[in-house]
Design goal:
Layout lengths: L3 E4 L10 H16 L6 H16 L7 H9 L7 H13 L14 H11 L3 E4 L7 H10 L9 E2 L12 H11 L6 E5 L2 H4 L8 E5 L16 E2 L1 H11 L10
Helix pairs in contact: 1-2, 2-3
């Protein structure tokens, strides 16, 4: 019996072209940091380097601590000032990135239906952003934060996708039985890996990412609407509530 459903966010519940989103993110960030006298190209390199450090995190520290320790190798004298600026950036400038995302009304509908049936919902988004940035993107997707039992961010996570320990950390934190979990995501490498822990998985293909060019037919897959119908048969034991 499925008791907990984990959802990736970007490209799953929140439609987006990841390349365009990242491009807009960096453009806005560089613009914000220019008054501090920070070179744009160097800043982008520093952010990417810090992100890589989070992906390689061994679990001894939070992703936030790993990221900012890495940033100090670029901006030792005022890394704290940078962090304050970045936090404010997410509250103001980052909000413009919403226009580079799509919207799928079924994201909210799906989560609402799941919660009505007493299941847990976890937003298992790669924790390389702070809480505020994650909350913003959830709101852009139309998600009610009150419906979410846990969402991952860099302040509280010590691993990142595609490290299997990212999922193990969630399991331990929430005291989950993997066999009672379903992981839903759009990235074959980062999301479907949860299957190795015994979770069921579903691959959302609306904004599919398949860098390894794997055969996606080894996983249940389809659009977010297809997933809703799949959910009805798997959990609700019928064809699912009519939403079309």
């Amino acid at each position: 019996m499925i008791k907990t459903i984990l959802f990736d966010l970007d490209g799953t519940l929140l439609p987006m072209d990841q390349d365009k989103f990242v491009e807009s993110y960096f453009r806005l960030l560089v613009k914000r940091m220019l008054p501090l006298g920070i070179d744009g190209k160097e800043l982008i390199n520093a952010i990417w380097h810090g992100t890589k450090a989070m992906v390689l995190n061994d679990g001894k520290k939070t992703n936030r601590d790993v990221f900012w320790e890495d940033i100090k190798t670029y901006y030792k004298d005022y890394s704290k000032e940078l962090e304050n600026e970045l936090n404010d950036f997410y509250k103001v400038d980052f909000q413009e990135s919403k226009k580079y995302c799509g919207f799928n009304k079924y994201a909210k509908i799906i989560i609402s239906e799941i919660k009505k049936r007493g299941l847990q919902v976890i937003i298992a988004t790669n924790p390389i952003f702070p809480y505020f940035a994650t909350e913003s993107r959830m709101k852009w997707a139309g998600i009610n934060l009150k419906d979410i039992d846990l969402y991952t961010a860099y302040e509280s996570s010590s691993y990142s996708k595609p490290n299997i320990k990212y999922y193990e950390e969630i399991i331990k934190k929430m005291n989950l039985n993997p066999e009672e979990c379903l992981m839903v995501g759009n990235d074959v490498d980062e999301d479907m890996i949860a299957e190795k822990l015994g979770m069921k998985v579903y691959l959302v293909t609306d904004c599919l990412i398949n860098k390894s060019n794997k055969d996606i037919n080894v996983y249940p897959n389809g659009s977010l609407i297809d997933f809703y119908e799949y959910l009805g048969k798997l959990i609700f034991k019928n064809n699912g509530p009519e939403i079309l």
